[in-house]
Amino acid sequence: MATLRLEPMTDEQYLRYRERAEEDYAQNIAASGAMPLPEAQEKARQQYQELLPDGLATEGHRLWTAYDDADEVGMLWLHLEQKSDGLHAFGYDFEVREELRRQGYGRAIIEAAERLCREWGVVAIGLSVFGFNSGARALYEQMGFEVTAIRMAKRL
Q1: What are the DSSP calls for the chain, one per residue?
Q2: Alpha carbon separation from 107 to 82, 87, 113, 114, 138 (Å, rounded)
Q3: Distance in angstroms between the alpha carbons of the first and the last residue of the chain
Q4: How many angstroms separate the CA atoms of 150 and 155, rounded?
Q5: Confidence band of 67 (pLDDT split at 50, 70, 90)
Q6: C-alpha torsion angle, residues 103, 142, 127, 38 (rounded to 10)
Q7: How many CA atoms lie within 13 A of 103 on its CB side?
Q8: Would you say 90 and 127 are in contact if contact means Cβ atoms under 8 Å apart?
Q9: Contact assessment for residue 26 and residue 46, using Cβ atoms and an 8 Å cutoff
Q10: 61-68: strand order across its sheet
Q11: d(CA 45, CA 26)
């Protein structure tokens, strides 16, 4: 793999991202058993509108496209927030193109994000992952992320 780099997402890339992101998020919420799909779709729409009211210009939010040479391989969305112990980052979304998964790009995107965060003086990076996403959970654990909370449900 060539050196992976993160570049700020363009307006065109952001529009493509938003077209699929809300629906993907809703599908994941429903697949997790948290709520039925219609409610999940409404929740996803509301959350994206609340979190990114000004799209790419939303204060505190940074969205990047990940490249391997000239090829788009994935994306990353971080929110930066100052807290009493320093600057914190939260990963709202992180994705590798489906046909490129399991080739080291996920690890490379996380490593690139960590480099940026260290440069900015970030003291901690958080993220959420759906319980059924065992591949992502395994990657995050390998990269040193630790579980801070677990939400559980039982289908009847």
Answers
A1: -PPEEEEEPPHHHHHHHHHHHHHHHHHHHHHTTSS-HHHHHHHHHHHHHHH-TTGGG-TTEEEEEEEETTEEEEEEEEEEEEETTEEEEEEEEEEE-GGGTTSSHHHHHHHHHHHHHHHHTEEEEEE---TT-HHHHHHHHHTT------------
A2: 26, 23, 10, 11, 11
A3: 46
A4: 17
A5: very high
A6: 60
A7: 14
A8: yes
A9: no
A10: 4-8, 61-68, 71-83, 86-96, 122-127
A11: 8
Q: Which amino acid is at 74?
A: G
User: Per residue in 81-140, pLDDT tens?
Assistant: 999 999 999 999 999 998 999 899 999 999 999 999 999 999 999 998 888 888 888 999
Question: What is the identity of the amino acid at 19?
Answer: E
The tokens for 28 are: 């994941």
